[in-house]
Amino acid sequence: MKRARKIFVLMLSCIMLCGITQPIQAASPDSLVTVRTDFSDTSVPYAVPVLQYAGTGDTVIPDVVLPEGSAYKVSLTHDGNRNFIVKFYNGDKSNLLANTIGVFAGTSLLERGSTAARTGIFEIIASGNWTLTVSTITNISTKSLSGTGYKVSGLFILPGTNTTVTMNYTGKSNFIVYAHYSNGKSQLLANTIGDYSGQKVLRNPENTTCYLEVKSSGAWTVDLGYGDAVSVVPDIN
């Protein structure tokens, strides 16, 4: 009886040790994704998450499908202290969404809209934990904005007349501002390095909706000159 008990204890110990020493498999990105499939309501006045991922370190997420007909942005966070680079590959094209060092929280433009579903691959190079959320650009904004770093604004309606845009930026690296229109056209408003204060003409020949894409490392303001209250664009929106 004692011998049988010793054998049982020995077997149980072996099972426990084997369980402890077996390697832990990283979760597949597919198990972390939340997918929205119902796009019938086009009047939703806020950003709608379409895909959500989270992980640690270098990761490739294949077979990413973006439904047709919407403009999409990507909100990113990273808590590491080294490189954080995110790219989206679609066929022979690639879109650099983030290229920074250290802690990061910001939003980049992914897709301006398409008549067909887009299929691609996300590549993340990271030294820490990261999150990636793809959302529709459906939230509403005023025509005077402020923020810090990489941002994509909400939508606002332009009346169809040219206007003067006033921009200010405090930072050491790039300051890039694009205006994207619902008709598929875009206009580069700023592309400089270091502190900036200046004005450009926003060419707006027709009544259309618009949103801004800003890439920077510091604080900025963009005022389209319509006297609107300032909308602060959050890090994750």
Sheet/helix structural class: mainly beta
Runs in which pLDDT lies below 50 for 5 or more consecutive residues are 1-45
The CATH class designation of the largest domain is Mainly Beta
Shape: globular
Our count of domains comes out at 2
The fraction of residues assigned to DSSP E strands is over 45%
Based on CA atoms alone, the radius of gyration comes out at 23 Å
CATH structural fold name of the largest domain: Jelly Rolls
- DSSP, total strands: 18
Major sheet description: 5 strands, mixed
Number of helices: 1
Query: Going across the major beta sheet, what is the strand order?
Result: 15-12-17-9-18
- How far the N terminus sits from the C terminus, by CA atoms, comes to 67 Å
At the fourth level of CATH, the homologous superfamily of the largest domain is Galactose-binding domain-like
Name the average pLDDT.
79
Helix/strand order: HEEEEEEEEEEEEEEEEEE
Helix content: under 10%
* CATH architectural grouping of the largest domain: Sandwich
